[in-house]
Request: fold
Amino acid sequence: MNATQIFEEFIQGMKQTGWLEYIAVCSGIISVWFSRKENVLVYPTGLINTIFYIYLSYKGGLLGEATVNFYYTAMSLYGWILWTRKDQQHHVILKVTSSSQKEWIQQLLFFAAFYVAIFLALTELKKNFAPGAIPWADAFASATAFTGMWLMTRKKVESWIWWIATNIASIPLYFVKQYVFTSVYYVVLLVLAVAGLIEWRKRAKLYSLKT
Reply:
């Protein structure tokens, strides 16, 4: 596929994009912007995004993506609770921190476990229920997203590294599945994730100096 064909497919895909996808994309961008600012509004805006994408993914037969967004929804509720917890002085308890070596090992094991489970599940489902699945690519995008969301609830700097991996994988993945606007959405999220990584590294250093 040459550049002209990609552009033509992009234009055609944009014309076919429904209003539900537009709302999901816009709320997702707003949510990531709030997460970069360490603002708890990341979760209510994110819930709009994930609930809409559960419906869109299921409707389009993208069971892997629907599962990821269901997980996002549950973790958003969990993260909302963690981010709003305060001490007796009414200060937010959870601060942005970097992962230790032990935590990095836990993250890699977490990712590996989900990758294998999702890959095997989609390989089986592809036969009869999810013909549009690309098991190895879907499993990578999903497992990195699962890991990034888990770390985001704990305000770990490394969550952004996993989000960057998710976004890089999702850009071509959604494009080939005819979700062109969502593919563009992940380009925007990639830029925001890089900015978020830079911002949270600064915040982690600042919080460590105060303790």
Summary: Helices lie at 3-15, 19-36, 42-59, 63-84, 101-128, 135-153, 159-176, 180-210. The chain has one domain: 18-85+96-210. Residues 180-210 form the longest helix (31 residues).
